[in-house]
Design goal:
binds adenosine-5'-triphosphate, Heat Shock Protein 90, 4 helices, 5 strands, single chain, 5-stranded antiparallel sheet, binds magnesium ion, alpha+beta
Length: 138
Amino acid sequence: MATQETGENPIKSEGDIVTCRKLIRNAATAAGFGMTDVTRIVTAVSELARNVYVHSGSDGVMRWQTLYQAGQVGMRLEFEDFGKGIPDIAQALEAGFTTAGSMGMGLSGVKRLMDIMDIKTEINVGTTVLIEKWGRAK
Ligand SMILES: Nc1ncnc2c1ncn2[C@@H]1O[C@H](COP(=O)(O)OP(=O)(O)OP(=O)(O)O)[C@@H](O)[C@H]1O
Ligand SMILES: [Mg+2]
């Protein structure tokens, strides 16, 4: 599996969320994803970068890579923070569950939009959310 492009961006401020969105819009478009998939991926980036900013109580980082495998193109992204962690992943994934008085639709939405979503978390150590989206390479 060849890695074609990689990058990372810190998540420390509201402005960093905008930068993450722009970086991934460009990378996914360059990789050959169509407009609909680019929108799905950028929406997921928005939600996960915002979760780091709003919920983790710490800084974080987004890392991304473009992958090519068996005629498919993929984008793999990781959102890592060093914050408070998620006590109950299954509960956090329920549509409507929130500890912040918002919609509680972020994680459930991202899971629907992506092909893969994997959450690793430890209380007062941090959280890493890995997502992948795959499509036919052009
Ligand atoms: N990086 C994180 N660190 C700590 N807790 C998190 C993190 N991401 C999510 N959570 C927890 O999981 C809950 C559900 O997240 P989700 O994104 O689904 O909803 P929300 O952020 O509360 O609302 P919405 O995304 O709809 O504005 C959050 O309310 C929060 O308690
Ligand atoms: Mg959210």
